[in-house]
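Exercise 7 asks you to align residues with tokens for two separate proteins.
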Amino acid sequence: MIASLRGRVVARRLDGLVLDVNGVGYLVQTTQRALRKAQGGEEISLDTYLHVREDVLQLYGFAEPAERELFELFLSVSGVGPKVAIAILSGSTPTDLRRAIALADETRFVAIPGIGKKTAQRIVLELKEKLGPVDLGGESPAQELVARDALVELGYSVPEAERALAAVDPELPPEERVRQALRAA
């Protein structure tokens, strides 16, 4: 398996990049964080995963080992292929995804194109035990989800709702957090 590549970025695409490693150009589909890490012309190092099927060998690139680890875990879930796993990782940090799985936050996964309610339930159910204990950051998980879900019901996307709530005091009750997030918008 090709576990990592270090080379110079020679081309950027919407879904990845071409990395020149000693004269060989590797097409690597990447997460958004890895794509942001890659500035044209400079040398970068990416953690990679080589996905092998009957008809294709495809490299996937990650900004950090934690992304690759989660990618491999997502692939172990029935109904999640490499493109969906990359989409999941591109929308959130590994820490946020681990936290969402620990909290059984299916809403975060349903918001990703290509994932329905049953697949989101499978992701949470199958990966919760595999991840082990996750630091939830000291805040009340249920209240955090109530406030976020209220903003989603009002038309916010999951990431927009989380950004709006991040600017509000987490010690407030969920209703007040929603009110303040709406005022700030």
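Second protein for Exercise 7:
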Amino acid sequence: MQKSYYFQHDYNGASDAKILFLRQQLGMEGYGIYWFILEQLAQSGGFLPLKIIRVLAMQSQTQETKVNAVISSYDLFQIIDNEFFSVRLNEHLNIRKHLSEKGKQGALKRWANSPPISEPISIPNAKERKESKEIKESKVN
């Protein structure tokens, strides 16, 4: 199963002035394109090349001109060196990365100072557990 991540979404985001202009010109389709692009940016680490616009249009089943407009016409994304990104999304990704690193450091520090309380109470290998269960069941039958 793939891990699921999230990023903050303001419940009044649809009322933001930039989003209102987007919705006025492209409707809710444009709003959906915007959120699809944000999701793709989040999955890619925050940056995507401009040459992927055609692929994003195909994936979101819309026209390339609409995806290009959402990226370049509403001041929702920054474009530098043939890549685009969302400043706000990247701030969130950096905070999440920072918190994750701090959590890992804290766990290492916590477990480095204390040995395990006892040995594991079960066989750690799932295959061995299954074989053990099958042996027990065959003895019962």
